[in-house]
Every structure is written in C-alpha cells, then in structure tokens.
Amino acid sequence: MVNVSRRMRQLTEMIQLKVGSGAVQLPPEIRRIHISFARVFGHGHLGPKLFWRNDLRRLKYYNPALDVSIVRPSGNPEEPATMTVYYHKPGSSTTSPDTVAPLLSETIDIKDKGPPQILDQILKIAGGTKVVPAEEDLETVARLKGMRKQSRVDRDISEKLNEQRRILAAKEARRKSLLAL
Known about the structure:
2 domains, alpha+beta, four-stranded mixed beta sheet, Glutaredoxin, 15% strand, single chain
C-alpha cells in the first residue's frame, strides 16, 4: 500500500489543478499561447512567473489542445515580458484539410502585471469562460483546509510535549551524573 502522505499530496495536487484561478475553458479558435519573461524575480517579471507556475497549468488542464510555449531567455530584468496569443478568426475554418486558415496573433505586455491581470488579458482576447468547480471538489478543498488547520494544532501540541520530554531527560541526566560522583 502506498504511503498515506504521498496519496494525500497527490490528492491535493489534483484538487489544486481543478479548482482555482486559471480554470478557464477557451474557445477552439485559440491555438497557441507564447509567454516570454526573464529568469529574475524582480523588475516586473514575478507576475508572469507566478502565472506560469500556478495558473497556466490549470489553463492547460481545461484546454488540452492548446499549445503553450514558455521562453525565459536570460536573467536581464530590463527585457520585456510578453504574451502572444495565436488564434483563428471565428468561423474561418475550412472544410478542406489542404488549406489552413492563417493564424492571427496579439501580443500583450505582461511586465508588472499579476496573474489575475494576465488571465483577464487572455479572457479579453479569447473570450473564454471560467469553469465553475464541482460541489464535491469544493467540499474536498474545505476538508483539506480543515485538515491543514488541525495539523498545525497537532504540531504545536507535539512540539510542547517534546520540549517537556527534553527538559525531563536533561534533569534525569543531571541527577544521574550527580549521583555518580
């Protein structure tokens, strides 16, 4: 049987993937999103990094056909942070597989913007809809929060008990050393 904490971590990761910001269903005309930002934290590049780490995986989960590319060229904080959304015009799909409608693109400056503003920019361009989480998922999230809270309480109690045991063990060791003299 697999370790309980490993199963709990996997459950938490799955729930976090399904529930939260970035859970957006984009229209099928959106083909690709390309994000470019520097490797440094400051100077306006933290928001794109947080979007990449947290929200982009949910966006990809709900849009598996979406091609996403990330470029982090260097550590130069003066480089621009941009996001390019590639899409077809609605209704421009052709019936012949030999002809492909041209991709249109729109580039946005995402430097100094947080993850919610970046997601709003995508929704503004793409016109997607936010996914409403299932009631069961919300209950699981609430249960996990309660478990984390109880875990903190239990950890504090254990730390106090361990500290008391250490004090008693030190007193006992001191008493034995005095008796040995």
